[in-house]
Design a protein that fits this description.
This protein is an alpha/beta fold. It has two domains: 125 residues, Lyase, Ornithine Decarboxylase, Chain A, domain 1 (Beta Barrel); 245 residues, Alanine racemase (TIM Barrel), CATH 3.20.20. The chain has twelve helices and 16 strands. Strands 1, 10, 11, 12, 13, 14, 15 and 16 form an eight-stranded mixed beta sheet that branches. An eight-stranded parallel beta sheet has the order 4-3-2-9-8-7-6-5. A hairpin with a 2-residue loop joins β10 and β11. The relative contact order is 0.16. Bound molecules: pyridoxal-5'-phosphate. Pyridoxal-5'-phosphate binds next to α11.
């Protein structure tokens, strides 16, 4: 987003401000679909659940990965407007409930929708069979998350060696297992994670077939990296490898889906904040902003991300520390930022801040989340 427009929006709406560019959302979605033609994109709503973002992806033809009843309802509200005969046939095409652990109340609320849900353990099968027997199941496999910015494998995923037993157990509990899913870890820049995961999945497909279970669906999860800097491999390169591996290992026409979050939203959002304080500590210049890690910069804590700050003005830069507005020292945006000398009241901005950022904003210390404005909707 060009700096002039950002400044105008900040003047119009005040700061802290989060600007969502829907043109970039649409471009990211199109790029995903064009470069991975066999893969339907189920946008992972958790990355940014702003209903306007969900609407734009919905209009573009996306499906959705939801992780809670609240997320499910954001998406389902859109399906409700379809003619009744289309609704039920449509739900698996449009929504996967991809949280392997679901509370009993959630299962009870989901059951009437005949949902597609993931699982990775025996206890969950018993719960689903009892409280959501009309579900279709997708078994989540444990796969390598090596080098990914956010690893997910310590929390979820069935060992490939027990996968077919878990499929058989679901079958014995009168549940149908539609296929497999995995997640290679978020912001996965190690492409081998994907190729190893696909190999594990095809082995489980073969073993399942040999034991009488025909799997029809493969969900390759999220992890597609946002281009935060030039060390990140291009999406084109990742897509080329994935297409070739998918065609080699899964030549038959099975349903292939993915749950991209970060890749679709990160680059569409820019945050603008104001300098509300300035000091020198231990010889280092420190700036205090009206946005911080308890609000838009929450990804620094929860997402292990580092967002850099840019000034709207040119000039020689110097190293400085930048903090958020709360009284907590954890509220540190960066200790080695490079900015020109800034005055009180001036504005700074951070790009690529659309994923796992506003999504986990809080009201800590009474500072509310930044205002969100949408452009090119
Ligand atoms: C089950 C599941 N699917 C998809 C995603 C989205 O991942 P990403 O934003 O890396 O694409 C996540 C992220 O945590 C997840 O847990």
């Amino acid at each position: 987003m060009d700096p002039k427009t950002l400044l105008q929006l900040a003047e119009q709406h005040g700061t802290p401000l989060v600007v969502v560019d829907h043109k970039v959302l649409r471009e990211n979605y199109q790029q995903f679909r064009t470069l991975l033609p066999r893969v339907q994109a189920y946008y992972a709503v958790k990355a940014n659940s702003d209903p306007a973002i969900v609407q734009t992806f919905y209009d573009a033809g996306a499906s959705f990965d939801v992780a809670s009843m609240a997320e499910f309802l954001i998406v389902h509200e859109k399906i409700e407007h379809l003619p009744p005969e289309q609704r039920q046939a449509f739900i698996w095409d449009r929504i996967i409930y991809a949280n392997p652990i679901k509370a009993i109340e959630t299962l009870q609320r989901l059951d009437p929708y005949k949902p597609l849900v993931t699982y990775d353990n025996y206890e969950e099968v018993i719960k689903i069979a009892r409280h959501a027997p009309h579900s279709g199941l997708v078994l989540r496999l444990l796969v390598p998350n090596t080098g990914s910015m956010v690893e997910l494998s310590s929390k979820f995923g069935a060992m490939p060696g027990e996968a077919v037993d878990l499929i058989s157990f679901a079958h014995n509990n009168k549940l149908e297992v539609e296929g497999l899913s995995f997640h290679v870890g978020s912001q996965c820049t190690n492409l081998k994670n994907y190729s190893q995961a696909l190999q594990l999945a095809v082995d489980v497909f073969a073993e399942a077939r040999a034991r009488g279970f025909d799997l029809k669906l493969l969900d390759i999860g999220g992890g597609f990296p946002a281009h935060y800097d030039d060390t990140v491999p291009s999406f084109k390169k990742l897509a080329k490898m994935l297409n070739s591996e998918l065609d080699r290992l899964f030549p038959e026409p099975i349903e292939i889906l993915a749950e991209p979050g970060r890749f679709l939203v990160a680059s569409a959002v820019t945050a603008v904040a104001q300098i509300i304080g300035k000091s020198v500590r231990g010889g280092k210049l420190c700036y205090y902003l009206n946005d911080g890690v308890y609000q838009t910069y929450s990804g620094q804590i929860f997402d292990h991300a580092q967002y850099h700050l840019n000034s709207f003005k040119d000039g020689p830069t110097q190293f400085c520390a930048v903090f958020g507005p709360t009284c907590d020292a954890l509220d540190t945006i960066g200790l080695v930022e490079q900015l020109p000398v800034m005055d009180m009241g001036e504005l700074v901005y951070s790009e690529n801040i659309g994923a796992y950022s506003s999504a986990s904003s809080t009201y800590f210390n009474g500072f509310p989340p930044a205002k969100v404005v949408h452009v090119n909707q």
